[in-house]
Design brief:
By secondary structure, the protein is α/β, with parallel strands linked by helices. 40% of the residues lie in helices and 14% in strands. A seven-stranded parallel sheet has the order 3-2-1-4-5-6-7, with helices on both faces. The longest helix is centred in the middle third of the chain and has 29 residues. It starts with 11 loop residues before the first strand and ends in a 15-residue tail after the last strand. It binds D-gluconic acid.
Length: 264
């Protein structure tokens, strides 16, 4: 096996929504594998600056760009700026996303549309402007961050499931259209991880917290760093013939129907 199979030295990786959580963990992984990382935030310059300081404190080559990934004009301008100021984007991780936990019957249409816009439309928008350069260069890696909800429903996350289910199919269609340009498009489906997004449902004694631990064969919430291997694999030469796949990093949730509470 070539020692350079997983080496990202000389590559520029754009990771959206990487000021914290899963995005930050994946960005750290790609940075430690040699990539120059470009991270985005959409609300707070302070949070973005703090994240870049964190990356640099780890010895990583990091840059931050503040823009709304749902705003096509802003995406176009910032992708142009990134490619002129940092370099051509070799790797794109569409990670930015939101969730609104509301039963469908009670959900405002505007809230449903916002989840779709951020979680499904923005990966299309960002990919549309990044892939143009990848096509010209004849190479690229695109990774869409899917979810357990790309495969399963759950009470109160219907909009999120619709978006993440759609993102799985968008991933397959991107692979279909762009593989001929030597661009590999795949997804990562995280299981249940200990992040700020899941903090409200991870409270000890919360029935859902106990449910997830019971529903996960590994018997625990994931650590965001557990995603780094899949992210590096799908960003590297090791995945040059992998297309349209979603790698589920879920502790085994999708492998099992689950077990009764009284079973070990
Ligand atoms: C929820 C959780 C999930 C996880 C993740 C699972 O409310 O069920 O937030 O959506 O965050 O998406 O893959």
């Amino acid at each position: 096996m070539s020692i350079h199979l997983f080496d990202l030295t000389g590559k520029v990786a754009l990771i959206t929504g990487a000021t914290h959580g899963l995005g930050m963990a994946m960005a750290k992984g790609l940075g430690h594998a040699g990539a120059t990382i470009v991270v985005t935030g959409n609300s707070s310059q302070t949070k973005l600056d703090e994240a870049v300081v964190t990356y640099k404190s780890l010895g990583l080559n990091a840059h931050g760009y503040l823009f709304d990934v749902t705003d096509e004009k802003s995406v176009k301008t910032n992708i142009e700026n990134i490619e002129s100021e940092v370099g051509p984007i070799d790797i794109l991780i569409n990670n930015a996303g939101i969730i609104k936990r509301t039963p469908l019957v009670d959900m405002e249409v505007s809230d449903f549309e916002e989840v779709i816009k951020v979680d499904l439309v923005s990966p299309f928008i960002v990919s549309k402007y990044v892939v143009k350069g990848m096509i010209q260069r004849g190479a690229g890696k695109i990774i869409n961050i899917c979810s357990m909800m790309s495969e399963l429903g759950r009470n109160s996350v219907g909009a999120y499931a619709a978006a993440k289910g759609g993102l799985k199919m968008l991933t397959q269609n991107m692979a279909t259209e762009w593989a001929k340009f030597n661009i590999q498009t795949n997804g990562i489906g995280p299981g249940y991880f200990a992040t700020s997004q899941t903090a409200p449902i991870r409270v000890a004694g919360n029935p859902f917290n106990d449910f997830i631990i019971g529903r996960t064969p590994a018997g625990c919430w994931g650590d965001p760093d557990d995603l780094q291997g899949a992210a590096i694999f799908l960003s590297s030469n090791a995945s040059n013939f992998v297309n349209g796949q979603v790698i589920y990093v879920d502790g085994g949730i999708l492998a099992t129907i689950g077990k009764p509470a009284n079973e070990d």
